[in-house]
Design a protein that fits this description.
This protein is mostly helical. 68% of the residues lie in helices and 0% in strands. Keywords: Signal.
């Protein structure tokens, strides 16, 4: 009886050995160890930790305020630190854009001001005017002033007299340039009371002697209300 069982046990053991060998052989041919490792839960966790470490290193170099906060911290804390840095970075970029927009607007305003620093209407020629203004324009150009200076002169005497050669105020100022007293204009001609050319001639001489040019007189008038 025992020999029979022994023979059966030996045969069974042999079958088991062959089956195990076949399984091992199949695994050796078909399985990819790296794929198995990648699918292992511990491998995925390690990869997440590595990614967090890489992100943390970027934060550490770019934003030193987070070093103490995240030193030795876990993935969640480092992710929060990275999110804070991203938010700060976005706010900084928005602020930089706002500063750039403001600087551009200021540059445009400055360029516009430089192109017309007196903020007056500049004529294209004396033909833009008529009457006493046209005469004043021609005389200003003859005195060496440009059209911007003419614009200042027109604005100045628009305010003072409306270019009316008979304009007078209660304190004795008279004529287009509002000479005070009006008799000062006699130095330019005896017809100072009625002749706009005489008044303009005197007025231009006064402006040039005291302010250098009409725009200088206009700037003074803008500041204090008279020239």
């Amino acid at each position: 009886m025992i020999p029979l069982l022994t023979r059966y046990g030996a045969r069974l053991a042999a079958v088991l050995v062959l089956a195990l060998g076949a399984v091992i052989a199949v695994n050796a041919v078909t399985d990819d160890p790296s794929e198995q490792d990648a699918q292992h839960p511990s491998q995925a966790a390690a990869e997440q930790q590595a990614e967090a470490e890489a992100a943390y290193e970027e934060v550490r170099y770019l934003h030193v305020n987070y070093i103490d906060e995240t030193a030795g911290a876990d993935v969640a804390v480092k992710a929060d630190a990275l999110a804070d840095f991203a938010a700060d970075r976005a706010e900084s970029l928005n602020s930089a854009q706002e500063d750039a927009d403001q600087a551009e607007a200021e540059a445009e305003a400055e360029a516009e001001a430089n192109s017309n620093p007196t903020s007056v209407d500049i004529p294209s020629s004396c033909s833009d005017y008529s009457g006493n203004k046209a005469t004043g324009c021609a005389m200003a150009l003859d005195n060496g002033h440009d059209l911007e200076q003419v614009g200042c002169l027109v604005a100045l005497w628009d305010r003072e007299s409306g270019w009316n050669e008979y304009a007078a105020n209660g304190i004795g100022a008279y004529g287009i340039p509002q000479a005070l007293p009006g008799s000062k204009m006699e130095s330019a001609g005896s017809d100072w009371e009625t002749n706009p050319v005489t008044q303009i001639k005197w007025g231009l001489g006064y402006i040039e002697g005291r302010y250098g040019d009409p725009c200088g007189a206009w700037a003074h008038s803008e500041d204090v209300g008279w020239y």
